[in-house]
Amino acid sequence: MGRRIARAGLAASAALLLAACGGGTDPATIGSSGSGGGGGGKGEAGGGDVKTASLAQPNTVTLSFCHKIEYGGGGWDYALTVESLSLKDGSIVATRSTVLPNGVEPARGCPTSESGGPQHQVALAFNKDYTLVAGMKGMSRAGAWDVATGKEVGAPDPDAFSKRPKNRGVAFHPVTGRLWYDMGEHDFQSSDDVASRDPKAGLASEERVAYEKLGDLMKQDGPTATTVLATDDGDYVAAPDGGIVAGGTMNGMWLARVAAEGRVGAGDFLESIGTAGLDAPELGCQPVFWRDATTLVCDEFRQITFSADYKKVVKTEELIPANDRSNSDPVLAPDGKSFAFLSEGENGKTGLFRADFVPGGEPVKIADVEEPADAPRHMTFLLRWN
């Protein structure tokens, strides 16, 4: 359990895909035969068409599907579909699809070594209403692209004579919706500033934060800390109030406090707490989200409760029964009482499930999740519970 359901994209016909999505201008034809039993038709909210209905409707979950369109010479483009499914029956209530311009790579969620997962980082690649995806142009300039048209929003003047710092990491702030990125003044990781901007307003709205101020910034609140650390390409999840961060490695997880000083990258501001009990061999945990200030949920569907000073593990709980299924991407309900996730059985079918945070709770299946018809396989992530 806890193995990622992330399926590498295979080659697909660019002509077929572009015909399906109108060359990136039709807001979602690609996904019209996708997940659940919904197909095309009406969205729940207001009975609108799924191609124009809001992707952030309450009582829905949102998924991303991505694959490569490969062509001669070893090049490729990325095809992206975003779908929102009803938590009542799994029907599609909203969908958008596009082919991103050549040379644009989404920040996370697509089949490359840099932009696969983890799930909570993939969610930061999308703004709050899922209309924009963050990414890199030419592997060096951060930007935001419309998920319905594939066009960049707030793009810099292509005719300007200017020199900009190179960017290495980019993410959307999950609360403010601003686009955050590092400012690589050098060609290597160093004590560079970070910046944020209104994605639609472009560079005119850019605000910088000096490197030496990052410690104070990451102590403000959890969403801000997680976003800033994402620009450093780190797999971190900050506690709700900020100042405390959970991180995961191949050797296990750890807790850290945000320090006042760092030397190289945002992650250098983290000082390990040395939490007792985290080194237990049976306590595998890839952090996904915090339920509250001391309760952390792992991708292994395990919940860990820490002492108020974070110096020891107080309790661990398994969130779903022991099983041989492949489970991934737990996302927290807005009320904090339940979670949804993806699960694949031995028949190879992926289902959308939900469960409550209660001892011995049994997950309830909502619907099967069908991949869009534009390619045989996609990299798939469950992003958020709206």
From TrEMBL:
Residues 32-51 are annotated as: Disordered. It comes from the Bacteria. The keyword DNA repair does not apply. Residues 33-49 have a biased composition (Gly residues). Residues 1-19 form the signal peptide. Keywords: Signal. This is Lipoprotein.
